[in-house]
Amino acid sequence: MGQRSLSTNHPSSEANVDDVERRFRSLADAIPHIVYTGTPDGAVDYVSQRLETYTGLDFAQVEGWNWTSTMHPDDVQRAIETWNDARANGSEYEVEVRIKRISDGTYRWHLDRASPLKDAKGNVVKWVGTVTDIEDRKRALAAAERANRAKSDFLSSMSHELRSPLNAILGFAQLMASESPPPTSSQQASIDQILRAGWHLLELINDVLDLAKIEAGQVAISPEPVSLGDVLRECESIIVTQARQRGIRVTFPQIEPPCHVRADRTRVKQVLINLLSNAIKYNRPSGAVEVDCSTPVPGRVHVSVSDTGPGLSREQLGRLFQPFNRLGQEAGAEEGTGIGLVVAKRLMELMGGGIGVDSTLEKGSVFWIELDAAPAPEMAATLAAPPATPARGATGDDAAEAPVHTVLYIEDNP
Question: What pTM was estimated for this model as a whole?
Fold first, then answer.
């Protein structure tokens, strides 16, 4: 129920007012919710019959500020604080509280909402609210969340179990390919087929595992200043073979001066490779892919990947980031699961960024990501480090003779 203005400029007869009042109360008593009104200072001055039917309390027992007597003791303070904030600001009031049902003595969750009615000057003259039973909805939501967690746990466990034997298959296939004497051409063709199928299956398993980890909140993001130029060059070296095999021309921007974004280096590269791979796979023959970088607003970096493919319809755009939805490509020649873009979207959200697409049928699509700009690591270190202060009594010779220590650094995602 939104805010409404109450005009006081049009006089009405007492009979008309009484008629409106009767209609309002009849309507309020007919709907399956508790309906109430309050004075400008928040005191309840009317409650529908549904309150007594549900709680066993009549109006006299909740009049004024006694309405909290219907609530679970643990919810009272939160409800009062929310109500006071709404009254002070003349804004919408909304809170979830537990209310005791007289028929079985159980507390059930309800959504308590109220809207201010204002006069022409913007002053609150009345509050109108409803209390709705949402217990079944909350239980259904909790059950859905439990089922989703169980699904994520299953996918994670299944992916781990599949990856272990698959690594053995790939490892032995690579050993066979490197044997001396080398395999015959027929044997090599069979080995290549094993490797292609194995790597493709491993990629799918990794996508499923990523999605399961993200949904379970188990993905750790390590934001740091990342050189966008370096990441794009790494992406170019990875996708150049795929593009050449399909006859797709891919162009990358020359980023000068160096541009840094705040992101997890491994994850932002994963997102960009996914966008580039899709742009190549779903392009037209001899098509083109163009990568661009810009700063549409200060402090924000925009990277786009445009293609010359068939484009996406409005209906397809609405289903684009749904898990396992391949937008009708299930019977096509391109393999996939419909997970990559979902993972990319979740990763961008975890990094505080955004992802989106603009597309026109028969003209192609432009997928883009946005991230916060970051100072170069050298600049950040200079800004963060305090000026060096020599130790008391130390000389230049003393500093030169200071002990040298070795630090071992191990990177698991080079």
Answer: 0.57
**Per the omega criterion (within 30 degrees of 0), is the bond before 414 cis?**
no
Do the domain assignments include residue 382?
A: no
The domain of 357 spans 224-324+335-372
| 57-66, 174-183, 283-292, 390-399: least confidently modelled range | 390-399
- Residue 133, beta-bridge partner list: 110
Collect all residues with Cβ–Cβ distance below 8 Å to 8 and sequence separation of at least 6: 119, 120
CA angle 73/47/38 to nearest 5° reads 85
Inter-residue contact 288 to 223 (CB < 8 Å): no
CA 348/CA 354 separation, integer angstroms: 6
Structure confidence by residue, pLDDT tens digits, 68-92: 888 899 999 999 999 999 999 999 9
Tell whether 387 is covered by a domain. no
Determine the Cα–Cα distance for residues 187 and 193; give it in Å rounded to an integer. Answer: 10
Q: Is the peptide bond before 181 cis (omega within 30 degrees of 0)?
A: yes
304 & 244 share domain? yes
Measured in whole angstroms, how far is the alpha carbon of residue 21 from the centre of its chain? 46
Burial of 86 (0-12, 13-18, 19+ CB in 10 A): buried
Residue 100, classed as helix, strand or coil, is strand
How far is the C-alpha of 112 from the C-alpha of 93, rounded, in Å? 8
* DSSP collapsed to 3 states, 366-401: EEEEEEEECCCHHHHHHHHCCCCCCCCCCCHHHHHC
Task: Let me know whether 208 and 246 are in one domain.
Answer: no
